[in-house]
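#lab-general

N.A. 3:47 PM
ok so I finally got the sequence cleaned up, no stray characters, all 192 residues accounted for. can someone with queue access submit it? mine expired

B.Y. 3:52 PM
send it over

N.A. 3:53 PM
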Amino acid sequence: MLSKIKSIEIRACRGGDELESLDTVAAVKLPGGSRPDFTVVTITTEDGVQGTSFGFGAQDAKAAAATMSQVKPFFIGRSAHDSAKNMKDFELYDRRWNHVPIYSYAPFVNACWDIVGKMAHLPVYKILGAAREKVPLYVSSMFLDGPEDYARQALEVKAKGYKGSSCTHQGALILISLVIAQYARQSVMTSP
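B.Y. 4:20 PM
back already:
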């Protein structure tokens, strides 16, 4: 018989570059190189098998961890192997009591899959069907000041051997996205 989930630890973690305050405007600007807050969920079964997953920290990891703490009681006593059942049961549980933010549930499921993989002595991607053996890796930028900054970062990424990068910016206009992407792409294509 598969063991049940015995305990869950939720940790709120600050990014490496402390913001001066938890001011919402300052938090969402995330200057290049800044790391946002994140959470870590570790689930332990009755047999002592542990699964861990990172989670979204929103603008304040402590606040995100508080919302995740509403999910914690749901998983205690359940099997990490019952992902589909747990998801259906949680939909009903959440609608009746919590209405937690959408990012709160996923780290628990990921940690459960980590447990399943450890118990099966297989990487999770193999359990899920292994569509491929290698996955292309790319770098996603933080918010930078302008097209030249994105181009400079794209060149740094290329110099480190990465095959791709994406540009994240604060503007919602598609024209800004196109200009930034075109400028960065042109810089990379013309560099040695």
